[in-house]
Amino acid sequence: MNVYTKTIVLAVIILFGYLMGRIFRRLKMPMVVGYLVAGMLLGPSVSGVVPLELNEALELIKILGLGMIAILIGGELELKKIRHLGKAIVGITVVQVLGASLVVFLAAYFILQLPLTISLLLGALATATAPASPVAVVREYGARGPFTSTLLGVVALDDAICIIFFGIVSAVVALLLEGASIGLGSILFSLLEVAESALLGVATGIVLTLVLPHLLNRRHKVVVLIGIILLNSGLAYTFNLSPLMVNMVCGFLVANLYRKPEELNFLEDIEMPIILIFFTLAGASMQFDVLLQNWPLAAVYIIARGVGKVGGAFLGAYISGADKVVQKYLGFAMFSKAGLTIGLLLLVQDRFPQLAGTIVAIELAAVSVCELIGPLGTRYALISSGETTVKPKKTSPAS
User: Fold this and answer.
1) Where are the domains of the chain?
2) Cα(96)–Cα(162) distance, integer angstroms
3) Could you give the C-alpha distances from 390 to 33, 76, 138, 361, 366, in angstroms and in order?
4) What is the dotted CATH code of the domain comprising 58-276+297-385?
5) What is the pLDDT of residues 315-336, one digit of tens each?
6) Cβ burial, residue 195 (10 Å; 0-12/13-18/19+)
7) How far apart are alpha carbons 160 and 225 in whole angstroms?
8) Could you tell me which of 284, 276, 383 has the C-alpha nearest to residue 328?
9) Rg (CA), the chain
10) Is the pTM of this model over 0.90?
11) How far apart are CA 156 and CA 76, in angstroms?
12) C-alpha–C-alpha distance, residues 66 and 60, integer Å
């Protein structure tokens, strides 16, 4: 495929993705679902308009999109706004991670009768919640309030806790497979990865806080913000850190140290086309053949994960003394599953190749379904919380 053909296909991605987004908006569904469906229709599993090679060639746009979403999550976590929610955010995140892992492990081991090692790894992978989809829906519907702040806080922490938890489970699986002892080093390595990611985010966040006041206008600040996001992501991938964590911490620093944290929202100037391409490409990468071949296993996994997320979020919110509306609806906003899961699957393939076949098949099938139902669950939760209206903001990426 030459460069001119790629240009035409990219134009099709943008225009068809936008059209599908508007159609789904008319159907009173999040536009992000329309973007995903557009990608599925354009992808190799259906029409083949977007071949796998183009999806890989546009990886930079996907990296930028995920980085933008992560830095905007961090930007929503102003301490003066969420200080009174801190206990609830930590409690909910920890309990829903443990809840999702436990329910999926029990379902995989006792219902599907998969080996103990595979069941443990599936339980660990089930904890990941993709932040891109919830944040896109929150911004589309202009949601604001304690429920929304709690959701964004939980989504932000989920990535860090998932990485730590996966590292611990991986150490246990290594013991079961090789007869080695569960070393403190394996656990400390996982903690070190999170700490190093956070430290890099702190460094770039401080630099951004110092630089932003001296830039001339909004357009100049958008340029620097994009540069910092790409720098964060590039350094994270280079040193095997979490690009999500780095960008989230960077946004958090700006939100709490910079006197005009709302300037992070200047990214709205370019947000819509980037998010549109990001989710359309995500849809194009979904594999229907994998889903069809493994649908019985994936169906049990998806249901178990949903029960664990909803039940864990409710229990965590109840224990933490969160508002009733948080207890009742938060779990429904946490079904999405994509970026971090894919990254962890690469680790599984590298470290446990003898287990990877079954795990990858189930997880990819689950990602395909969860990325479609996730935005719908978030929409239901936000509207039910009373912190938004069905009509999105005019300035949102879904307008």
Assistant:
1) 58-276+297-385
2) 11
3) 15, 21, 11, 36, 28
4) 1.20.1530.20
5) 999 998 888 999 999 999 888 8
6) middle
7) 23
8) 383
9) 20
10) no
11) 10
12) 10
Nearest to 213 by CA among 267, 269, 260, 270: 260
Q: Quick one: tokens of 151?
A: 């959701």
Q: Which distant-in-sequence residues (6+ apart) come within 8 Å of 113 by Cβ?
A: none
Instruction: Catalogue the long-range contacts made by 78-86 (C-beta closer than 8 Å, 24 or more residues apart).
Output: 78/255, 78/256, 78/261, 79/256, 81/149, 82/149, 82/150, 82/153, 85/146, 85/149, 85/150, 85/153, 85/322, 86/153
Structure tokens at 109: 């081991």
Contacting residues for 204 by C-beta, under 8 A, at least 6 apart: 228, 231, 232, 246, 250
Helix (H, G, I), strand (E, B) or coil at 115: coil
Length of the chain, in residues: 399
| Residue matched to tokens 């946490």 | 334
Q: What is the largest CA-CA distance in the chain?
A: 62
Quick: pLDDT tens for 162-200.
877 887 787 778 777 866 555 566 567 667 777 888 899
Q: Distance between CA atoms of 30 and 136, rounded to whole angstroms?
A: 9
